[in-house]
Amino acid sequence: PTSHIDEMELSQLRESKRLLIIIFAALFVASGIPVWWKTTEVYRATPPFDHVTEWREGTRWPLYNDTLFHDHLSTSTHALRPSLSYHLTFTLVNADPSTSYLPSWEFSQIYNHYFSSLLSSFSPLAEFTVDSLVMHYASLEKRPSYDPAAKVHYINEHDLPSYINPSEWKLDYSAVTTPTLNFIVFIPPHQMYPLHIKTSSPSAPYDNSNGFIIPQWGGIVIHNPPFSSNTSGPVPLPLGVSDLSHAMEVFISQLHTLLGVPLPPQTAKSLLPSQEVMYALRKHFLASHINTTLSTLSSLDDLIDSLPNIVVLDNIQTQVHTAVAGLESAHANLLASDVDGALRASQVALSSAESAFFDMNMLSLLYFPDEHKYAIYTPLFLPVCFPILAGLIQECKQRKEKTKKLKSRKYI
User: Fold this and answer.
1) What pLDDT, in 10s, does the model give residues 56-70?
2) CA 214 to CA 87: how far, in whole Å?
């Protein structure tokens, strides 16, 4: 009887153990997995890409499929692409102040005289910011040639990159994210006065501008101050509006080229662009902004669809909504032949689209695959799962043993 009671208690213990295992497994499946699923769920707002999809299918914004937006105003390869803003940096570079001049300038006066009105006329197209620098000690890569007949040092126009390389001068430019145009007034070393750029033209062997453009980067003008026989040390050289008139006029011409703006004819009384030119530029910038906005939104839509784990916050949804509203407004203004209104709307659309695409919160979680989740949560769930799995394995073994015993009794 005692052994029979012990066997009954043992059987009850096994049943209790089996029940506990089932309860723990059920709790794990019913609560643990949903909690894990919910806590690892990526928040994804739903930006309104429907209009962009309709544009792709050719059923929305028909004017955006016009030739204006596929073959807009052609520009030189020197020019930067249209942007919402530009940063202009003017640098006075003195090659060797130890034996010649120690130049300085009042750039605010120079800017007000030469560039203030010009940049104001460009303000409908983009925002312009300006700063200035003065730098000393910037050597040439090689020594220029000398023309004894003309008594000048010179650099052949085709060899300019091998003589003048601004990237080697380590110019201390401010960190900006907008496209930057650099304009450098270069004062050569005293022993190389005067320094000119030699052309291949027999009628004009030396370039009157004495400057050149670096495509999509900026321009450089070589400025030769009056020769000084002073050997006692550097001589102060203040440069004012009249002293740098030639260099600034060259910079104005270079700025037109780098922005893709046609230069006024030589007979024009003003260097400001005409109304016809500004109208063409507005259409050019408008077309570029619309194309870039549509391309950016399409890329963002494809990116979100291709990466199910990418976070899409509410601010992304708001920015995409603002960009789409800007495209709607620009299209409505175009239908009303209001190019200025369409340009302003396209600027808002482009700014919002780029803000959405380059949002730091989205980029920070761009590469977060499922393997990372498993690596994080496995150490948490393994201690919980191990006793349950061990109990299930032990229960399976006991059932097998019990089945064997029953079979052996049956044969006996």
Assistant:
1) 787 888 888 764 565
2) 16
Query: What per-residue confidence (pLDDT) applies to 69?
Result: 61
Say if residue 1 is exposed, middle or buried (CB neighbours under 10 Å; 0-12, 13-18, 19+).
Answer: exposed
Which CA distances in Å does 60 have to 51, 56, 292, 297, 327?
7, 8, 17, 15, 11
Residue in the structure block whose two tokens are 């930067």: 80
The pLDDT assigned to 354 comes to 94
Specify whether the backbone of 98 is left (phi greater than 0), alpha (psi in -120 to 50) or beta.
alpha
Query: How many other C-beta atoms lie within 10 A of the C-beta of residue 208?
Result: 11
CB within 8 Å of 47: residues ≥ 6 apart: 300, 301, 304, 312, 316, 317, 320, 321, 356
Can you give the C-alpha Rg of the chain in angstroms?
37
342 vs 404, higher pLDDT: 342
Single-letter residue type at 283:
K
User: Cα(first)–Cα(last) distance of the chain, in Å?
Assistant: 23
Residue 54 half-sphere exposure toward CB, CA atoms < 13 A = 11
Give me the amino acid identity at 210: N
108 or 162, greater pLDDT: 108
Q: What's the pTM value of the predicted model, to 2 decimals?
A: 0.77
Contacts of 204 (CB under 8 A, 6+ apart): none
Lowest mean pLDDT: which of 4-18, 177-191, 198-212, 328-342?
4-18
C-beta contacts of 10-19 below 8 A and 24+ residues apart: 14/398, 17/391, 17/395, 18/395
The residues with which 128 forms a beta bridge, in sequence order, are 86
Using CA atoms, how far apart are residues 28 and 155, in angstroms rounded to an integer? 80
255-292 tens-digit pLDDT: 999 988 887 766 556 778 888 889 989 988 998 999 89
How many angstroms separate the CA atoms of 256 and 270, rounded? 14
